[in-house]
């Protein structure tokens, strides 16, 4: 999977985990919601592990000697890259 696609998947899964956690706060007995949360959390953990295995950092605290593309990689708003969920059409630069 391409790095941009994997990063987008991480963002979507992170949202799913956060959103389902909020739902479970108000519906603690909902087994379907708990299953959804657990599946999304498992997939998120695997996606993050794969992204980091490819040598990319998700946050600046994870930058190590082998993850030097944090500063040298193109910024999200440059070129064909996506800036979060924003499509290129919305980019101003």
TrEMBL record:
Protein name per the record: Protein CotJB domain-containing protein
Lineage, highest ranks first: Bacteria, Bacillati, Bacillota, Erysipelotrichia, Erysipelotrichales
InterPro entries: CotJB_dom (IPR024207)
Sequence ranges assigned to domain Protein CotJB in this UniProt record: 5-77
Name of a matching Pfam family: CotJB
């Amino acid at each position: 999977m391409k790095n941009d696609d994997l990063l987008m998947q991480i963002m979507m899964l992170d949202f799913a985990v956060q959103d389902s956690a909020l739902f479970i706060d108000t519906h603690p007995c909902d087994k379907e919601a708990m299953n959804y949360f657990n599946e999304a959390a498992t997939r998120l953990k695997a996606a993050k592990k794969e992204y980091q295995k490819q040598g990319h950092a998700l946050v600046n605290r994870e930058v190590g000697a082998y993850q030097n593309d944090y500063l040298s990689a193109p910024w999200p708003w440059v070129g064909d890259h996506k800036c979060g969920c924003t499509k290129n059409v919305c980019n101003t630069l």
